[in-house]
Structure formats: structure tokens, C-alpha cells
Here is the input.
Amino acid sequence: MEKVILEIHLPYSVVSQRVIVSSPRVLVGRGYHCDVILDDPYVSEEHIEITLTADGRFLVADKGSVNGVFAGVQRIGDTPVMIDSGREIKIGRTRIGLFAPRHAIQPTRSHDGFSSFLRLIDQRLVGMALSLVAAVAVACLFSLVHTNEPDYWKTDAYGIGAGFFLLIWVVWSAIHLSLVVASKKALPWPRVISYVSVVMLGLAAFWILVMPYINFYLLSDAQIMLTMGFLLFVFLMISDYGLRVVCELPVKLPRLVLYSALAALLLSAASIDLEYYGNPMFPKMVITADLPLADVQPLHAFIEESLVLTVK
Amino acid sequence: MLMKLIVPVILLLCLYMPPARAEDQASALFVSSLPSVFQIAVVDKRSQEKEAIGTGFRFESGKDLPLLGTNYHVISDYTRDPDNYDIQYRTEDGRSGLLELVAIDVAHDLAVLTSRDDVFVSQEGLHLSRDPLSKGQNIFAIGNPHDKGMMVIEGAYGGTISNNFYTHIIFSGASLNPGMSGGPAVNEAGHVVGVNVSIEANDINYLVPVSALWGLLERVRKEGFVPKRSSNEWRKMVAGQVLDRQRVGIEGLLKVAPEMADLKGLTFPKNLDPSFKCWGGGNKRGKEYNIEDAWIVCHQESDIFLKSGLNTGRIQYGLVYSDGSFVPRLGFDYEYSDGYGSSWLADEKEEWDMSEFQCESGFTRHANDDWKTALCTRRNRGYPGLYDVYFSSAILGHAKQGYYYKASLEGVDRQLAMTFLGHLTEKIRWKK
Here is the structure.
């Protein structure tokens, strides 16, 4: 029995409907006599006719519609056009994916460690617990930055923890929305919250525990900018790759150009000097641990050289 | 018998005889000096309204070039824009006219003006004293405070502060009010011993010794009177005078052996010279702080007025020790970095007066230790050649222990900054 499978994306709808017509020939339009009836005001009464051919492809013919038929950006004219199974056409504001019954599919995924891991982080308790642990851990990390305040745990710690917890949810909602819009995928919140909590905790830990050692060696604005740009780029790559894996989205080639552009954009925005600083701004981080130093100058030589460089 | 009665009576009478009252003396001096004292106003040509007021006085000088003395800060607006400002005088009886600027001495806040108007040509002017002052001696400051009319304020000579950077006479008594700036301070004989300085914004009150005016007159005599100098010329002159003053001051520092302080094993010059005042303090570990520290900071109390809202010339330096034995090392490093990077010695200035600081950072070797050091410079936009230099250096390799020292120099050039920083850092050593 030949049949045609249509995946219909109605305008402004997040989810798609799958319609199976048990006939090799399907009439699509707004009229009630059609095989598939679309509630789209830009679709004509009889808009197209789709015919499944013997080789599993489709012949699409415009039935004299007002707004035409599009395969990609190409408008299908008076002569019918062959469309491969799995491709999409557009009529009015509705997109229709065409599938033959023997359309090739991805091999079945077997349950493995990763899938049970995903099932674990899909649990609400895990998501909530991870986000809370991350918030507490960040409050602990910040106690290092506020070393000189004995009452840190009575005052600032709560604000920092709560702020970080809220931030996790803000980032979650952004990711959730983008997944829904771009990938038509609404994942259970605990999974994405767990991921966001771990990534942001990692970022905070890196920033507080590792970054000072990097900053210690950065002596000029140019070095700082380049290093920050590189780190931002690496962070974007890693976090995006992780998100794709966790959300079971197809892992595409790393979007090098996009991330470099994004990193460069953020950096250039940060480097715009909008305000006049009356105070001297120089790389401030000092580490008192015994670290190897490069290029140690006698003090008087440094003063002499710097006075020449800074007087312009 | 009669004599026995008369003598005690005479003695008693003598005791009760009222002494010559100071008020009488003041009013007599006031009356005799008044014809030589004028209100000085810098008037905006566009609005014909005064922008700055002060006092000036005619003093002994040749009749071909009758001279008036006042403060530089009274007429500083004129030097920045001579085309749009006039300097005017007003007498007590309401006469007024224009004055011309002859010379300035920014370091001593002095200016000399001239005019060929009758009121100046027809008088000798006040005598400039050449006698040394003695402590407690009465001084009478004459001026026109707040545009309320001429008055005299009686005070006493409270000593002289003299160092390589400036010489000020302390006027003890009622404080001088703005508007009296540039007025003469005379001794009991009516001779000028100093020039009043009162800057409202800085809350400064002192007298510039008359000897500084002698120095300026000497220069006028040598250079002659050049009429109608441009703003560029005046500002170049100002910058040059500031640099000269700083050069003399800093070179003077090299000659004195300062008293050394010891801050947790590191030696530190306490007062490089008497123009510096040092302060110390610290925090103990307790309810407010986890890290203990101790600091000593020395700064000059007087600086140079360049224009309204912009002073320069001040030198400051300080050393801080902090001890974080009770906290994690990285936590201490955060706090230590904040101290090293903070700019509590650099005075904030306006964007239109100074450029932003340009900084260089590096690792340096000094006192047998490694340090992280930064040096920053900003340019004075209005007075070419004047720079502010900021220096900060923090010791490395002593876990949970830190020393950092800073210095801020205003109104210097490269050479002066180097001389000073070289001299300062030479003194900061480990105590043997």
C-alpha cells in the first residue's frame, strides 16, 4: 500500500504535525474536499498535488495557486517538479516536509551509560540539587576574593549565592527558548539546569582559582585582550559542544568563525573607552607564591624605560 | 613727704595709663596704606562682569613703570585667555581702570601688574620691608574680603615654613578671607612683609614672604616689560616656572639625609625634607579585618595653583606592609593585589585638564627581591611639559606577606620623576 507522509509546520507553531495519507496522490489546499486541509489564509483552495513516483520521489505540481509553491527559494512554475524524500516545500506560510514510506532513518541508538546518565539528570531532584550545590560552591569560592572581611558569611555570601542561583535560571531560560525555537526541542528542565549549573560553576572556579595566575603574567593591555579573547573562544566552543551532546542534538563541526567573531565582538565592546578614568589603570594581580618570572629588570632600568614609553 | 605721696601716685597713674591700643595702630596703618591698596578684578569682556576678585597694592618702584603686586591665582583666568579678559583695578572712592600684567611667579603665587593711570603715578606706594620678622610681632593684613570693602585684619607673625619647595609665613590670628588674596601684609611701620594668600577651595591661609616679590622684581628688571603676551606664552612660562621649582626642590632632597623609619624590616625615608608630613596607621586582625597591615604615607602639604580647579606640584609617597598569616594564600593575594592596584595617592583631576594615565608594568629587581612594578604618566593638557607620574611596586615571593610602596608626583618632567624615584627607591632596603 503506497502512502505519503507529510510533516506540516503551520505558521507560528512550535511543533509539527505528521499526516499520513494512504494514497500515492495527495491534494493539498484550503478546500474541504482536499486530502490535507490547511488553515493558512495564504493557501489556495486547491494549492498543490503531490504524487509519489515509483523510485520513492515526489512530483509536485502547482494547481494554479495564488501565491505559488517554493522548494527552497525556487518557485515551482507551471511544469511539475521532482522533489527528493526528506526535502521541504513551502506553500503560503506553511512548510511541508515530504517523506516516502521507505525514507532512510538513523540507526537505532542503544541504551548505554550516557543514556542512563541523561535519565539521571532529567530528574527534578538532581537538577535542583546541582543548581543549589553550584550556588553554595560559588559562595565558598567568593570567600577567597573577600578574604579581608570576617563577616563575609553573615553578609555578602547570601547575596552572591542567591545571585548565582538566579543567574543559572536566567541562562537556563535563554537556552531553553533557543532550543525550542531553533531545534524544535523542549527538553525537561532538570537536564539543562544541571548542565548550566556545572558549566557556570566551572567557569567561576576557573575565574577565581586559575585566572589570577594567568593575570599575574599579563603585563600589558594587548596581552590581556588577546588572552581574554582566546579564553572566551575556547569557552564558547567547549560549552556549545557540551550543550549539543547533552541535548542529543547532531554535533556539527565546531563553528570556528562564529565563535571567533563573537569573541572579537565582545572584546571590542569591552575595550571601548567610554569613560574618562582619572585613576591609573594597570594590570593589578600580584601572586606571592614562588612562581618563575621572566624578564626581571633592575628597577632603575624599568623606570627609565617606562618613562620614555608612557610620555607621549 | 610730698614726694613720698607724689611718687606712688605717679607710679599708679603710669600703671593705669592706657597703652597705645592695637586697634588705633591698626586703623592708623589702614588709613595710611589705603591709598595704595586696590581691588583687582578679572573681568570677562563679553559680559563685563567680574570672574575673579582679589586685592593688589602699589609698591615702591620707579614712576616710569608703576608696579602693583597681587597673587597669581587672582589673575590666572587672564593668563589663560588674555583676549577675552581684562584686569581692572577699583579704588575705594570708585575710580577704576585697566591694568596690564607684567610678570608672574606661579611657584610663589605672585603677579606684578602695571598701569600709567594718575592714581599710580602720583604716589610712592608701600615700602617693601627688608627687616627680618620676629615671632609674635604684629602683622596687619589688608584686603577686600568677599567684595565687602577694604578692611584690615590684625594678626601675629607665627613663624616661617621654609624648605626646598616653598617658603610660607604663618599668619596667626583671624583667618584671611577670599578676596583678600594679593593684598599686602604690613608690619607696624607700614612696610610690606608679605602678600596674603587665601584660596577658598583649598582652605589655605598664609603669607608669601616679601623676599619672593624681590626675586620677581629682579626678573622684571632683567627681562623688561613685554606688553600683550599671548595665552600660549603665559602658559609656557607657568609650566617652566613649575618645573624650575620642582627641580630646585627635588635636587634639594638629594642633599638632605632623611630620617629613616623601619616598617617590619624594610627601611623607609620618613620625611625627605620638611615640606613632607608623614602619617601612619594600620589595621589589626579582628572583627573588621582578617589581614593585618601597617602603613606610612608622606605627602607635601602645599602645592601650586595653576588655574581654578587644577593644582599641581604635590609629591606623595607611602609604604604598606600586610600580613595574611591567618588566611588562604590566594585570598591574601586578592587583597594584596587590591592594595597594589589602588590609587589612593593619585589625586583625581578633570578630563579637560589632564589626559588619562598611560601605564607600563613589569617585573623588577630591587632590595634583593623581585617586585611587580607599574609606572603611569599623564599629561597636563593646558600646560605643555608638565606631567603627573604615578608609581606602584609590590614585593613578590613572600607567601602571605606583602610590602608595596607608591609614589605620586605632580607637575614634573621625565628627568625630575626619575631623579625623585631613584632617590626614593634607593632608601627602601631591608634593614641589616
